[in-house]
Amino acid sequence: MNRNSPSEPQSGFTLVELLTVIAVTTILAALIIIAVGKAIETANTTKAATQIRQICLASQLYANEHSGHLPKVAADNVGLDDPQDYFFVTRNGVAELENTALAHYLESDAVAEAVLMAPSDDGLTEGGQEGRNFSYSFNFLINKGELAPGSSSPSGFEKALRTVNLSYIEKPEAKALVYEEELPNDSFCVWFIDRPTTRYGGESHVGFVDAHVELLPNEEIFGNSDLGDLVPANRQY
């Protein structure tokens, strides 16, 4: 007499189990992507701070060899004839590093060019065009420009004759030398005009005269005279 054999268990996933595995895998992948994104963001933030510190240290090295005076800050097409005394010069809004102070104290044009571009900066101009090659604005009050007749202070965009001396800066730990701006495509690199970057959630890196770097809220940077006025007005010129 034949007896029916008990049915063998079916192998493989049921549809519900398969959908569960897919859902869990998708969630894990999303979490990994978020974690990797945050890790990259953290790395870029750290690298940007390091780059600004390099700029600040280069300025101190220059000052040590120039009786305490910092390198000059250039407006567009200014300083092309004597770039060795400028952080860098700009020609039609594009930074040129050859023979500049930054290139000299950062060892080469290539190193200086890399340092001037923040890792999170896509290099686009405000109109979306490519070609911008620097991410930072300098404190234009570093410059001591030529005084116009009858004026007590320079326009700020004239050719700098010399720069402020570090010995005049009473609180170097509280005075901004350079910061990361949003779109330095306006041909200048000027603290009181250019907007701080939005690449770090409403904060920007600021490099101080003493070479330390902080990530500060943008509202504490833009137009803040306490941060930007390097020396008392009666000692500027």
Automatic annotation (TrEMBL):
Q: Which domain of life is it from?
A: Bacteria
What Gene3D superfamilies does the record tag this protein with? Glycoprotein, Type 4 Pilin (3.30.700.10)
Instruction: List all membrane-crossing ranges.
Output: 12-37
State the InterPro entries in the record: N_methyl_site, Pilin-like
Question: Which Pfam families does the entry mention?
Answer: N_methyl
Transmembrane helix as UniProt keyword = yes
UniProt keyword list:
Membrane, Transmembrane, Transmembrane helix
Against PANTHER family, the record matches this protein to: GENERAL SECRETION PATHWAY PROTEIN G (PTHR30093)
Q: What is the name listed in the Swiss-Prot or TrEMBL entry for this protein?
A: Prepilin-type N-terminal cleavage/methylation domain-containing protein
The species this protein was found in: Cerasicoccus arenae
